[in-house]
Amino acid sequence: MKKKSKAVRYNKWGYIFLLPFIIVYVIFQLIPMFTTIYNSFYENYMSGLKQIGPNFVGLKNYNTLFSQGDIWTYTKNTLVLWIMCFVPQIILSLLLGAWFSDTRLRLKGQRFFKTVIYLPNLIMASAFSMLFFTLFSDGGPINSLLMQIGFISEPYKFLSNTGSARGLIAAMNCLMWFGNTTILLMAGMMGIDTSLFEASEVDGATSTQVFFKITLPLLRPILIYVMITSLIGGLQLFDVPQILTNGTGDPMRTTMTLIMFLNKHLFSKNYGMAGALSVLLFIITAVLSLIIFKVTGNDKRKG
Amino acid sequence: MLSDHNEPNKGLGLHTRRVIAYIVLVVVSFFCLFWFYVLFINATRSNGELQSGFTAVPSGNLIKNWTNLVHGTLPVWNGLFNSLLISALCAVLCVYFSTMTAYAIHAYDFALKKFIYPFILMIMMIPTQVTALGFIKLVSRMKLEDSFIPLIVPAVAAPVTFFYMKQYMESSLPLSLIEAARIDGSGEFHTFNMIVLPLMKPAIAVQAIFTFVSNWNNYFTPALILHEDKKKTLPILIAQLRAADWLKFDMGQVYVMIAFSIFPVIVVYLILSRYIVQGVALGSVKG
To answer: Which of A133, A228, A238, B255 could staple B42 via S-S, CB 3.0–4.6 A?
Structure first.
């Protein structure tokens, strides 16, 4: 407190250093956010060559959004794709994380394996899905490989069947994100007090018991964090299905995600509907973020 | 090797578990690398060779595919240049100003701090997609379509990078050091540039790489802003390649184009992988 007069002299620098962030944030994110919300209450689209609006229509866009039914299909698609990606991913990540952090197991070449599993996370999603598109196309290398080893007699149409098209998208995302999840979970596991493991070892617990009775319960906050950030990421799923299906969401719109739907409205300049959809996505993300806030906040109070 | 662990164990033996772990790790690694291996092989093969089926050995047409690609219709060199320019400038702006923002919160005590810090944490999770509509409206009102400014300047306000920098400062930037610099008569701006930034080098390196890579890979926003062919970035060109009637395309060229977008990142990653993997783990602690 004695230093206060001196501190005040310096503290104006706090504002000066914050200024670039605040200015850029307000111009490029806050104002766009308000414009987005504002547009969601206006009718504003092209009908043929004729521009309709902008006219104030209240909640009509939201009404149309929910009554048209498309939104439910795309929400279901997005969630199905997320679950197909998340379940194998979390199982694999827990397993690998437990092995990497197990001091008794002493796995060799850990750095090599960590480097390899994290690698797909940095790959350009659009290039990666273009690669999968060419590899899994009807006359592509995977089909010819499967035919050469006699597994199938004629090309399997990966991209024309709902199951395999969704499977490819989920597999690509899983491949791109499980390394990241493994490293996060491993960091969490390393943070667990080792005396707990030693005590359980003395008591003769098997590694399966240790995993389910000690590691998992103590990892709960991090698991919830991983799950919700993954869900937020899953809602943003765009690049992979967009490139893989060329924006059509084929077969029969079963791989069309919410952001692909938004992108469609943005490109056709249907700003009212795009606004309503954006606001909806914003609310969902905000609720999910609040849950993270609560979970990590509780965690800090305990620690 | 196992002698110190040979007490009776009710579950699977340590040795068995180790073998299972290695098998799973090898299989998983195979699935991580296989696609890039096939990509490399196919990029070296001519269109005719590619039609005749799959092989595991490279052929000699890499250079030919490459020259065909750069002399084709896609503005590949422009794409590369645009991607590099945007990603590099984003990385520089993002790490410099995020460190500055973190420093403002870390080193100073001012009235609004109690409000601004939680605010930045709150907005951290908002995806750019949900404000995209307002963003493109703003860009067209500012007459900045087909300009790189709306893709580069927003990098100044990056809440996630800010958060990482703030965490790093808490563990490795003692306030006494800044106090000492003040006593020596160093101005605040000078202290930040000459003392704080060098101390933050490890965190800056990690975040610069992440920002570079995420902008290099970014498809959604650039696709909404850039329409002119010469202004397009690599992901947009890839999407264009996908939309083209690709059956008529020389597949060798397609693979070279994909390889060209992916392999630079892989090479940089392999050189710096130790820092990157460490950085991910660091950022996660108390995320």
So the answer is: B255
